[in-house]
Automatic annotation (TrEMBL):
Residues 97-313 form the ABC transmembrane type-1 domain. Residues 1-23, 343-375 are annotated as: Disordered. One of its GO terms (biological process) is transmembrane transport. Pfam families: BPD_transp_1. InterPro entries: ABC_transporter_permease, MetI-like, MetI-like_sf. It is a multi-pass membrane protein. It is found in: Cell membrane. It comes from Oerskovia enterophila. This is Lactose transport system permease protein LacF. Keywords: Cell membrane, Membrane, Transmembrane, Transmembrane helix, Transport.
């Protein structure tokens, strides 16, 4: 019985053999999709939460800022940039912006300096180090309203503890709730009390990551504690210092709780002498005006101000990071490296030839003396 094979299509001379197209199964497609989409699925929760809690409120605030929007009446007509021009034309807004920058400078600069000093002290060999490290974090755990109420009583004009202590030294009482600069100092002290310990722990974590051989090399060079701090510690934690400065800037320009609870009215003083921009936003939205459109415009103006300051900080950070540390290695580090290399050579000589090293022949090659005699 003859078996007939299926006829193959005619193929020209010199042409490569034709292959039938292979069909990809669903499981193979699923595996390819898994390889391509899995990384995006792993990082998607962050972007989803950011879109819900960060991006959407920002966009919605921009939508509200270009409309006439009232707390009771709701959305009104489209007004464009009229809310922004109305806010910029009010003197109270500029006073609140000035107060915000004043309190920010009085709080952030001493805060960073004190945090570095406290972190340097906690980095030493102290007894009960865990107790002291937890102790500096306790003010951060206390509620901001409680801190504001306590400091509001401490800085009371008539019966405050601070004025009582000053009176024992013959100093006249300070009007903490009437004078502009005095009120800014009092509010800045609240901010420093709450955030200094938190930043100190961040600096402490960075200091503990500094290689200890750098301090040993500095000690070999005869550097003292202060010299080690400014020549070794500060350059090594420079990135952490920049991070703390940026976060302190963002938080310092959004001060609200301390200012709100500094007095019973919570409106920034009788003359608005310590009203910040966020407190002014709160007053416009839920105060007498109840104007959500202008409040949204204030929020966007503050966002632009923080963004500009962040860009300045980024430019400074980039210039510092591109300059980088000096390429010149200190003499102490060079000396320590030479000692380490010499110790390694002595250890190898004491233990014999290291494994994997080619054997060196100490005898002369065969026939070499005869050749030298012939010559």
């Amino acid at each position: 019985m003859t078996v007939l094979s299926p006829t193959q299509p005619s193929q020209g001379l010199g042409e490569p053999p034709r292959r039938s197209s292979r069909r990809v199964g669903f499981s193979q497609r699923l595996g390819r999709w898994d390889v391509k989409l899995s990384p995006y699925l792993y990082i998607s929760p962050f972007f989803i939460l950011f879109a819900i809690t960060g991006l959407f409120p920002l966009i919605y605030t921009a939508f509200v800022s270009v409309h006439e929007w009232n707390l009771l009446g709701g959305q009104g007509d489209f007004v464009g940039l009229q809310n922004f021009t109305d806010v910029l034309a009010q003197p109270t807004f500029w006073k609140s912006l000035r107060n915000t920058f004043s309190i920010f400078l009085l709080s952030s600069v001493p805060q960073v300096i004190c945090a570095i000093i406290i972190a340097a002290l906690l980095d030493q060999n102290l007894r009960a180090a865990t107790f002291w490290r937890m102790g500096v974090l306790l003010p951060y755990v206390v509620a901001p309203i409680a801190v504001s109420l306590i400091f509001g009583r401490l800085f009371a004009d008539q019966y405050g503890l601070i004025n009582g202590v000053l009176g024992t030294f013959g100093i006249d009482p300070i009007r903490w709730h009437a004078d502009t600069l005095a009120s800014h100092v009092a509010i800045a002290s609240m901010v420093n009390f709450r955030w200094t310990g938190y930043n100190a722990l961040i600096f402490l974590a960075a200091m503990q990551a500094v290689p200890r051989e750098l301090y040993e090399a500095a000690i070999i060079d005869g550097a003292g504690r202060f010299r080690q701090f400014f020549s070794v510690t500060v350059p090594q934690i420079r990135a952490t210092i920049i991070f703390v400065i940026i976060t302190s800037t963002i938080g310092g320009l959004q001060i609200f709780d301390e200012v709100r609870a500094f007095d019973a009215q919570g409106l920034g003083g009788a003359d608005r002498q310590w009203m910040t921009t966020v407190l002014y936003l709160y007053d416009v939205a839920w105060g007498n005006q109840k104007n959500f459109g202008r409040a949204a415009a204030i929020a966007w103006i503050l966002f632009i101000v923080i963004l500009l300051i962040g860009l300045v900080n980024f430019a400074i950070t980039r210039s510092i990071s591109t300059s980088g540390p000096s390429k010149k290695v200190p003499r102490g580090v060079q000396r320590a490296r030479r000692k380490a290399a010499a110790a390694a050579v002595r250890a190898q000589n004491a233990s014999g030839r290291p494994s994997g090293a080619p054997a060196r022949s100490t005898s002369a090659p065969t026939g070499a003396p005869n050749e030298r005699k012939k010559r």
